[in-house]
């Protein structure tokens, strides 16, 4: 394999592994929030804001993985 093929493979692995964790975290966050709202609908406002903040932080990790993958591919 040449160097360019290894770069593409490394970038694919970086984004694949880096996207799996945040996707799992976002799914678990949303599931638990929906469960909590189902148990106590009056607390929906208090649950949604921290849930959205936590989802944004989890998504930031996926963006870091994307940046790393782009650096690997183009540098």
Distance separating the two termini: 18 Å
What is the quaternary state of this protein? Answer: single chain
The secondary-structure class comes to mainly alpha
Number of strands: 0
Uncertain stretches of 5 or more adjacent residues: none
- Mean pLDDT over the full residue set: 94
Rg over C-alpha atoms, rounded to the nearest angstrom = 17 Å
* Secondary-structure element series: HH
CATH structural class: Mainly Alpha
Describe this entry's structure for a reader.
With 75 residues, the protein is mostly helical. It has a single domain, classed as F1FO ATP Synthase, CATH 1.20.20. The chain is built from two helices and no strands. It has helices at 3-39, 44-74. α1 packs antiparallel against α2. It is elongated. The two termini are 18 Å apart. The mean pLDDT is 94.
Structural descriptors:
elongated, F1FO ATP Synthase, 91% helix, 2 helices, 75 residues, mainly alpha, single chain
Topology:
Layout: H1 3-39, H2 44-74
Brief description of this entry?
This protein is mainly alpha-helical.
